[in-house]
Amino acid sequence: MFKTITFICNQKKIEATLHSATTVLDYLRKHQHLTGTKEGCREGDCGACTVLVGTLSGKKVKYQNVNSCLLPIAQAEGKHIVTIEGLNSSDLSIIQQSFVDEGGTQCGFCTPGFIVSLTGYLLSSNNYNLDDAVDSIGGNVCRCTGHTTIKRAVDKIINELSVKNSADSNNLSSLINLGIIPKYFEEIPKQLTEIKKKIISLEYEQRADFLIAGGTDLFVQREDDLLKSNIKFFFGENGADRIWIDGNQCCIDARATVSNFGDSEIIQKYFPEMTNFIRLFGSLPIRNRATIGGNIINASPIGDMTIILLALNSTLHLQNNKATRQVSLKDFFTGYKTLDKKEDEILTKITFDIPKQNNFFNFEKVAKRIHLDIASVNTAMLLTVDDRIITQANISAGGVSPIPLYLSEMRKSLLGKKVSEENISEAIEVALSEISPITDVRGSEEYKTLLLRQLLLAHFYKLSPEIIQAEILL
Amino acid sequence: MKNYDWIQHVRGESLFVDDITPPEGTLHAAVFSSPIAHGKIINLDLEIAKKLNDVIEIFTAKDIPGENQIGAIIPDEQLLADGILDFCGQPIAIVVAKDNFSAHQAVKQIKLEFQEYSAVTDAREAFQKGQLIIPPQTFSLGDADSAWKDCDLIVEGTAESGGQEHIYLETQGSFAFPVEGGGIKIISSTQAPTTVQRAAARILNLPMNKVEVDVLRLGGGFGGKEDQATAWACMTALAAFKLKRPVKIILNRQEDIRMTGKRHPYSSDFKIGLTKEGKILAYEVTFYQNAGAAADLATAILDRTLFHCTNSYFIPNVKATAYCCKTNLPPNTAFRGFGGPQGMFVIESAIYKAAEKLGVDPMVIQEKNLLSEDDEFPYGQKTKYCMARPSWKKAIGKYNLGEMKNQVEKFNLENKIFKKGLALMPICFGISFTNTMLNQANALVHVYTDGSIGISTGAIEMGQGVNMKLRQVAATIFSVDISRVKIETTNTSRAANTSATAASSGADLNGKAVQIACNNILERLIKSAQQELKSNETDQIEVKDEIVYLNGNQTELTWNILVQKSYAKRTSLSSQAHYATPGIHFDKSKVKGEPFAYHVYGTAIIQVTVDCLRGTYEIDFVKVVHDFGKSMNPIIDRSQAEGAIMQGIGWMTIEEVIYTKYGKLLTDSMSTYKVPDVYFTPKEIEVDFLDNPNPSAAIFNSKAIGEPPLMYGIGIYFSLCNAIKAFRSNAEIKNSAPMTNEKLLLMLYEPAGQNLKRKLKNKMTVK
Q: Do residue B614 and residue A366 have CB atoms under 8 angstroms apart?
């Protein structure tokens, strides 16, 4: 329904009364006539609409890259929304100049998105490097350049900044002096603090038709319906990004985003490779919005986060106004997009046991395109090996069944066995009898079956490359 | 020299159709289209939709005042279907509402009753049913039939190449408003304003002078807006004409992908004959082109397939036949390369197969058969200033092919799961519209009294940098600072009867027209300077860096003063000029002639690393020696080449258009149709400028750049094949592009995939 929302758009404080599901993209283009933000796909797959969302955090503002096509205006409340127009000064910024120098633009349609994304990166990173800079534009598609000149431009920016060696995202004036952002950014923390004082906590509809977390899927599929409905938002409340340790358990607030998960020191400590796996999930702006809980409740048979959490043998904590209850994630999915969840229950928390020392965890995913794509097949495995004997095994597989699949038969086949080529082959054979892939746009039944076999092999190859001989491959 | 447009682009200040501030009262249109690929309309019920809030009007075929026809070459395509439905996504009705949301809500309330017929989606099936759009076309050279007996080896096979969705980042769109006198003005995102003007005039039953089409710039075209921007422009024109109000239509991404055509998929049969040394003696090829439901540009595209069926090779005996097959898919259309890539993929497939049989590396056959000076193409033209061999030689020398091959061999011996593959791809691409008539352009140049310059031509800026090149032409001829030159919008009132900006010819043709117009004005200015300086006819007068020189000596006349004095003397400071490419001709009945002003050549080396466990790969490098002629703007040209290469690679690898057998598109969004992203880019890309001042027709001895480099991308297919064979020497290589991760894995493990499937089926039945 309609709400009055207060926020800063570039340099301007705005109070607007709008349907809370109006996308920021439409608001910017149609209401503010800020046409530098482009609509390319309206599903978070092209990045032409990327904006920065600045959130007050103490006395600083933390900026994140977000797809404005999937961002409801209600969630701009109390934020600083930055578009390409808000990055322009009389001189070109260091990023803009580099794109001009290297020919990182041709038709110009996708270009503002790239500039905004890279500015977001320079605003939010403390350690500029090419890999992270490229990841920040992993969600931006340029059809003209093939990204070669863009990569050169990015390379040049990173090199220049490391030569100057003074860029520090914690220091706004250094970013301003380096020509990364305009001067008015200095005033934003104060202005947001003032706005925040005035905002009474977000009132939600009593009778909500939709509960929205990150909205990265609902806004793709049901934007029309959302615009006609009462909506309750779960995103962006205090503490929503929490990931913490409780005894021997790791706990995740269901509203935590995939970025929160990937950036969590706890997760990085126990799963050093997780940062690399996370890069295969959507794109940075998607990960900044998509929540862990949303990925589970969405019940896609191919959800990357769900597949990871299945292999961690996670427990879900559900709550309604009467009670809380726990259900194992592997028992949660009862059929295609059907859940063991009552209508009034809300997923609040996900927990899993902290892995022991001798654990091996791996995630594999193959899609049509490696990055920003939905998997053809994905799988995760958590294995405990004591004295070469498998004492614990949890393996999940996506894209091969109507639900995100926990491979319970494969687990049984592996438990108590030695890690050997023979046992692995047998276990994989068992796994392939548990699946029921179908032919669809992401691959044929034949392919998905073969691919799962290969990806299960890949787990063991990473565990112990010498076990996998050439013969087993063929 | 950097492109001035880029400064606007990086600031987000460049405007596209949907960015133009609409006048108050602008209405928004949405299209109701066919849900089936083949059938007949029984009843169309608009009543519920019409009654919805904010819906103004719904238009169907019967509301068209003129002819319901938008086919540009062959009149076989209705703007709005009124009887037979020929493809999924075929427009039937236009809903006009106060806003975009309401228009789309109303579209959902239109009820269509239909009778469904069986759909044909496959070109060969259409061919068998006799569904040809034009009679078969044949090119021949020598006598293929009698040459087979001289061959030591004859290899036959088939090759398939898939469609390709344009994914111009700016979707199709148009904005039209009524103007006084019953006319209409259309702001369209089209590569071909004259085509739009002609079609809209036909639809509205107006003379062409009452339809003005204006184009600012395109957010990418790639051929997808050459013919297929017309429908949306005509729809807004129709609605604006009938309602006497401005109407805008912007397709959303799904609508755009569903309703518009793509690169034509081809299925082809080949037969190639060689000596045991690898010299190709004969080549016979039959192309089955999947045209979709209407001709669109298919027939011209078919021609170019034939023109380029032997790529960069001289083959003395050739017989090439092509069938334009009508199916129930959206009419397929132009896409960078325009049929050329499809033809080249087949000859490269044939060479690969022949090399397998001969037990040699395909590059041995490729090199042996490269075109030399004065070699004849199957269409009768002979090579001139041929750069096929020089570019090959430079590529293998500069990039050290020998060392590359050693490295690959060493890597493949040392690695079990990762395998590298390397392939070369030479290209030869003819420049000129193959329809000779289209090789003309005109320009209108004004010099204003303050010395600034405005230029109008038929060229459309869509990212290729043509506006910058035209600016360079004018700045060079007048010898003024480039900031004085502005390129105006492309407008049918200022540049009439223009050809589409297509066939890589935008800068070539329009640049020449600008050159002529500028020279006309310069001539008058010099004459005026002569009077001003009271010099003799024999004196040398020239403008250099905005200053007039008399016999090499600086005078007091600056560009500004000269312009003002000339104006005061009532000298015309404007010129309109026309250019037609000289010397080209083609006799359609004999299928011989000199259709091309010149050819573009080059050679690419592409290396990949395949993860044979997961069936995925990375591109190690693309290294190219390309014949740019004398490049007018190396930054623009290199970027054009690299972008084209990535599009070619995308077409060969991850870009897969999938229709169901009922003709429904499954890959109808950017989440299901994937184009190369920043991660997919080769780890290394190098483009060397082959030094070859082109003495042919093009402006300042440059060469066209838009399309040719796309075809380097074809090489990656064979790099991948080589990596597959390094993993499993007996793997059966299929010529079926794109090489998706799926096809790659199945090819690596065939018949494991089949066996697994069978096993799975058995288990399921036992259960």
A: yes
Report the pLDDT value the prediction gives residue A7, as an integer from 0 to 100: 97
- Dihedral through CA A460, CA A465, CA A469, CA A472, nearest 10? 20
Interchain CB distance below 8 Å, A42 and B728: no
Residue of B10, B656, B754 with shortest CB distance to A446: B754
Residues B622 and B729 in one domain: yes
- The pLDDT confidence band at residue B764, using thresholds 50, 70 and 90, is very low
CATH number at residue B378: 3.30.365.10
**B2, B4, B5, B6: best to mutate for the A interface, most A CBs within 10 A:** B6
* Domain assignment present for B165: no
Q: Is the Cβ of B732 closer than 8 Å to some Cβ of chain A? A: no
In the CATH hierarchy, which top-level class contains the domain A239-474?
Answer: alpha beta
Check B667 against A453: CB less than 8 A apart.
Answer: no
Domain hosting B624: range is 266-433+591-749
**The residue to which tokens 């390094």 are assigned:** B726
* pLDDT value of residue B319: 98
B707 and B597 in one domain? yes
Write down which residue in B524, B558, B580 finishes a domain.
B580
Whether residues B495 and B404 share a domain: the answer is no
Res B529: pLDDT: 96
We report the CATH number of the domain holding residue B24 as 3.90.1170.50
- For residues B660 and B712, membership in a common domain is answered with yes
Q: Give one word for B568, left, alpha or beta, with left for phi > 0 and alpha for psi -120 to 50.
A: alpha
Angle at Cα A225 formed by Cα A219 and Cα A231, nearest 5°? Answer: 75
Q: What is the pLDDT of residue B173?
A: 98
**A35 min Cα distance to partner chain B (Å):** 6
Structure confidence at residue A467 as a pLDDT band (50, 70, 90): confident
**Residue A409, C-beta contacts closer than 8 angstroms, at least 6 positions apart:** A430, A431, A433, A434
Work out the percent of chain B whose per-residue pLDDT is above 70: 98
CA A148/CA A145 separation, integer angstroms: 6
pLDDT at B765 over 70: no
Residue B767, pLDDT score: 36
Return the CATH architecture of domain A2-198: Roll (3.10)
Task: Write down the ipTM of this complex.
Answer: 0.97
Would you say the pTM of this structure is higher than 0.80?
Answer: yes
Nearest chain A alpha carbon to B634:
A103
Q: What integer pLDDT is reported at residue B759 of this predicted model? A: 64
Are A318 and A296 in contact, with CB atoms under 8 Å apart? no
| B 595-614: CB under 8 A from A | 612-614
Cβ of B646 within 8 Å of Cβ of A376? The answer is no
Are the Cβ atoms of A444 and B671 closer than 8 angstroms? no
Quick check: B45 pLDDT over 80?
A: yes
Q: Which residues fall within 8 angstroms of residue B250, CB to CB, at 6 or more apart?
A: B17, B18, B100, B171, B172, B173
Q: Which of A369, A432, A453 to mutate to probe the B interface, most B CBs <10 Å?
A: A369
B422 and B299 within one domain: yes
Last residue of a domain, one of B250, B284, B307: B250
* Residue A204 pLDDT class (50, 70, 90 cuts): very low
Q: Domain locations in chain A? A: 2-198, 239-474
Residue positions of B annotated with a catalytic role: 707
Residue B283 contacts residue B273 (beta carbons within 8 Å): yes
| A chain contacts of residue B17, beta-carbon cutoff 8 Å | none
How many domains are there within chain B? 3
